[in-house]
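Budget justification aside, the reviewers requested a transparent look at the raw inputs and outputs of the sequence design task funded under Objective 1. We therefore reproduce one unedited record. The lines immediately below are the structure tokens for a 315-residue chain.
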């Protein structure tokens, strides 16, 4: 029946099962803890990771194991010598001591074999833990790279934020200036409101006067209404006159038609006269040209005559 024992190695609790007694299993665990402590106390082990400490401890235990194996070989040789000594008639007491030594060494060898198996399992666990830690380290490196990228982004955003803050400061200054202007405008508006109130009072006074004027206008309206009635009577008279004028217009229309016919006749005569006038105009232009030519000839004759009169007579 296997014994299940919980042991603590390097601060970690393990559940071990074996044919050996609980005391023996705890002794093995204590042996491993002692080895860990021994490695950690060494000067060259300072600053070394836990994984490397585990590897160094496993190497040291393996070293102890191989040394014990060598001792076992020596014991086997001693056993052979013991057998030889029996043949050489050694004393029973010496033989018994040798046998006890052999049994003790064999028992220690068995313990070391079990310890080796446990250490091999521990080494496998350490390797698995190392692999997990390496994956975790790679993950942390990736996260670090991402964080560095995020830091660069944050730096850029920070720079942008500073620029935005500067812009907001400038806008705030502009708002302050606008507010100052608004206050000035508000002051001006208040003055204008005061003036408008004064004007409103004047308007109220004028409105009272306007109401008085309205009463007078209503009286005038009644007078105008009476005048309008008189005008309506006159309009009726004018309407009758219009009807008479319409009749006269029809007569005028007939006269107009006659005049239009006469105008067409006159228009035809005018066209004929215009044609004759064109002929006369052409003849006039020809006569003007002829007169111009005669004037030139006359001027030439006068010039020739003057030269003739001024010329000396022949002797």
């Amino acid at each position: 029946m296997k014994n299940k024992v919980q042991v603590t190695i390097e601060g970690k609790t393990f559940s071990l099962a074996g044919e050996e007694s609980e005391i023996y299993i705890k002794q093995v665990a204590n042996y491993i803890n002692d080895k860990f402590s021994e490695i950690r106390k060494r000067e060259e082990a300072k600053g070394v990771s836990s994984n490397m400490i585990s590897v160094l401890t496993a190497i040291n235990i393996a070293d102890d194991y191989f040394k014990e194996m060598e001792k076992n070989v020596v014991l086997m040789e001693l056993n052979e010598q013991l057998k030889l000594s029996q043949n050489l008639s050694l004393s029973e007491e010496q033989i018994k001591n040798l046998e006890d030594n052999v049994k003790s060494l064999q028992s220690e060898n068995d313990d070391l074999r079990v310890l080796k198996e446990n250490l091999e399992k521990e080494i496998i666990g350490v390797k698995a833990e190392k692999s997990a830690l390496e994956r975790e380290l790679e993950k942390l490196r990736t996260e670090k790279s991402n964080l560095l990228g995020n830091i660069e982004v944050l730096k850029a955003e920070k720079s942008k934020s500073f620029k935005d803050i500067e812009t907001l400061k400038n806008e705030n200054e502009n708002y302050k200036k606008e507010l100052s202007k608004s206050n000035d405008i508000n002051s001006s508006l208040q003055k204008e409101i005061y003036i408008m109130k004064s004007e409103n009072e004047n308007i109220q006074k004028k409105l009272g006067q306007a109401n008085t004027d309205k009463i007078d206008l209503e009286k005038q309206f009644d007078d105008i209404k009476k005048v309008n009635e008189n005008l309506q009577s006159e309009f009726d008279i004018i309407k009758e006159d219009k009807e008479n004028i319409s009749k006269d217009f029809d007569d005028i229309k007939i006269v107009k038609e006659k005049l239009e016919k006469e105008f067409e006749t006159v228009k035809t005569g005018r066209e004929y006269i215009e044609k004759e006038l064109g002929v006369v105009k052409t003849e006039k232009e020809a006569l003007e040209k002829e007169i111009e030519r005669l004037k030139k000839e006359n001027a030439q004759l006068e010039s020739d005559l003057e030269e003739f009169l001024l010329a000396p007579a022949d002797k």
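The longest strand covers residues 3-9. The two ends are 195 Å apart (CA to CA). Computational costs for records of this kind are itemized in the attached budget.
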